[in-house]
Design brief:
The chain is α+β, with helices and mostly antiparallel strands. Strands 1-2-3 form a 3-stranded antiparallel beta sheet, with helices on one face. β1 and β2 form a beta hairpin. The longest helix has 13 residues. The model has no long low-confidence stretch (mean pLDDT 93).
Length: 66
């Protein structure tokens, strides 16, 4: 099983650290870490300009990871 590397953009990292609720921050980080294994089988395929990317919801549908 191949494990992928996750790279956050500076804006994504800034947004993640700006979340005040530590539990939400941890759940979001855990969901991001889950994308290391078989990310192509997770989430919803996007279309148009974002074709080739996938969207995954996290923390009770509150956040979207692209």
């Amino acid at each position: 099983m191949v494990e992928y590397t996750i790279q956050l953009t500076p804006l994504a990292l800034e947004t993640l650290t700006a979340i005040n609720d530590r539990r939400e921050q941890e759940k979001l980080s855990e969901r991001i870490d889950q994308l290391k294994v078989e990310p192509e089988k997770q989430g919803k395929a996007l279309v148009d300009n974002l074709s080739g990317f996938r969207s995954v919801r996290a923390v009770g549908q509150r956040y979207r990871i692209v």
